[in-house]
Amino acid sequence: MSTYNEILNAWQKENISNDVRLAAILDNQKIALAYHSGKIENDAITYNDTREIFEHDGVTSYTGDLRTLFEIKNAKNAHELFLTAFAARRVIDFELVKDFQRTLTQSTYDTRRWQLGERPGEFKHHDYVTGREEVGAHPDDVEEELGELLDELVGVSNEKALTAAAYFHSKFENIHPFAEGNGRTGRLLMNYFLVTHDHPPIVIHEEDRQKYYAGLEAWDRDQNLDPLKFFLEEQTEKTWGKWLQRNREHNDEYCLSQEEMLALLNKEVEKLKAKAGRESILSDGEKALCNAAAEEIIGIISKKSADVIKHQLSCSQNPYVHRIVTSIDNHGVRQKPHLHND
């Protein structure tokens, strides 16, 4: 199995179903996501400034321009919007696209474009071409072209998430719907699409920007999606490789084989049945819970894999089953062999 597929499988096992869980797993990546995306467009952005703003909402001894500070602060606000949008399961529509762009570009439009009437959160009013292939839809065509692109995202399966994300990002940058912030908005929307399709978000590392641009240009020039898709696979591995390694080490240290888990669960079922049969120790309600827990476990252990068993147990609403999940975790601790020189 490729590293990319290992990362994808590990991510999907996290069963990220709400913004709290997503925020927790992104806690070590949110600064990198913001820093690299901003750095691609603005070389004055530094990792330390980004970290300070994310952690302390300000910087010390700063001597740069205010626009750079606004861009970093906006990236932090955009991360919060990303999480709240995920919590609300917002679909990617014109409103969300504009909300992301407005948040990322507030107080950062250059004077000339502001004087031309361009504003954050509004599609461009004038024609701007960009890139080696001079791409960019005419302002009159932006809503139609972007609307068609968003329609194409509807119903995409999780299995096709990366391909669809590469396609969306290529087309979005080709349309270039805003006067400012198209790259940052496109990358944020791409990652939002990915997490809503059970795929980890991707840091596009600023040091790899030339390969990134080449992938976008391959689409602009030849409608060839493969270079960008392969690049995104590589960036997924670069983003989440260390996280995967920690997962591997954790699984090596804290795990039960399927046979060990089944043996443990069968013992717990016997204990539950014994508790439910006692006359004076438990109330009738607690006896019923014990019986229900025993029956639930019997049903769950008919599953094929230890991972599925553990997941099904953790989803139970029965407090006795929850205690058994803790018992599994405690029994699963295995000490690694102590290596030493004789």
Question: How would you describe this protein?
Answer:
It contains 16 helices and no strands. By secondary structure, it is mostly helical. The protein folds into 2 domains: about 5-250, Fido-like domain (Fic-like fold), CATH 1.10.3290; about 260-330. α2 crosses α5 and α11 crosses α12. The longest helix has 28 residues, at about 225-255.
Strand-helix topology:
Layout lengths: L2 H11 L5 H8 L3 H12 L5 H10 L9 H23 L5 H12 L5 H5 L26 H12 L7 H15 L6 H14 L13 H14 L3 H28 L4 H20 L6 H17 L5 H9 L4 H13 L11
Helix pairs in contact: 1-12, 2-5, 3-4, 3-5, 4-5, 5-6, 6-10, 8-9, 9-10, 9-11, 9-12, 11-12, 13-14
Short description:
With 342 residues, the protein is mainly alpha-helical. It is built from 16 helices and no strands.
Tell me, what is the CATH class of the largest domain? Mainly Alpha
Find the count of extended strands (DSSP E, 2+ residues): 0
Head-to-tail CA distance between termini: 37 Å
Main sheet record: none
Helix content: 55-70%
Rounded to the nearest angstrom, the radius of gyration is 25 Å
Q: What name does CATH use for the topology of the largest domain?
A: Fic-like fold
Q: Average pLDDT value?
A: 86
Total domains? 2
> Judging from the principal axes of the Cα atoms, what is the shape?
elongated
Q: What is the CATH architecture assignment of the largest domain?
A: Orthogonal Bundle
Low-pLDDT sequence parts = 333-342
